[in-house]
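Bug #77: duplicate submission created two jobs. Keeping one. Sequence:
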Amino acid sequence: MSRTRRTTVLAIAAATATATLLTGCQQDIGTDTPASPSSSGSAQQGARTAGDVGPDGADASRREVLTDDGGYVVRGSRISFVYRNGTRYTVDVGQQIPAGDTTLRTASGVLVLKGGSATWTQNGAATTVDARGAGAVADRSGAIVVTPDGSVTCANSQGLQFVGSNGSRAAANTGGAFYTDREGKQVTLGQTPGATTLAGRYTVCNVGDTASMDLFSDVLFEFDSDRLTPAGRAVVASAASTIRQDVQGKTVQVVGHTDSKGTTAYNQQLGQRRATTVANELRRQVPGATLQVRSAGETEPVAANVTPDGKDNPNGRAKNRRVTLTWEK
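Kept job's structure:
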């Protein structure tokens, strides 16, 4: 076994042990996460009224089992594990995933869906998530562990890394959160200042050798618009400063996301317009950057658009309105 491979394996074991300890210690603490993004500024209501807003939008092939903090989304043979820090991890199990609680054995591995939690076991490694958006991801490149308070432990060839839900971090980690002050003028990365709004999240603690950043639309844009607010310009400038050195010579994926309110077609268009706006601003801030821009519309949520009884869920929808940046490390 190579030294790098051995280091990764040992780091994964350490991360798993840390996850067990942290989850056990924190499961009764509650949701000690940064302030949620503003619930104002959803996409234009189209053919569907608020009462018609469903977790699947108009896509009958997609089933969402999500809370405000995370869960999982099923579409055909693919399942996306959704964590409270915004991470989404998708696997194709190789055959149609049935509705409801199930244990599905495939040629690739075993999928267990039970009580709002999901576990995928493959080659002895388990990927899990529960209704609090807590759990672990493991693949060939490493492992991440997300605890109930939103803190993240990452193990890969770079060693063991940690980022707290308030942006505090340990050696080798460069993750954190973006906040704006009350006036929307000052942007802070990492520590939570007073009277602020969560504007975005940044973490390199992703398996698959990727980094990602979420920028929340309610801070970035005017209501039902792709026009950047003054705070939005400041947030994009701060994001550009943070990633400028890391993305040189790489392709950055810029993806617009919306909630499920309004028509599917309108949300697809709004996501595209907003992603294009952020991409144009990034090009000014990071000259020469290679960007690929697209819209996911309402199809990749990270929180529930509706409550369990089918009513509108403004807090969940606010988390789904975002623009994500991803690139290979």
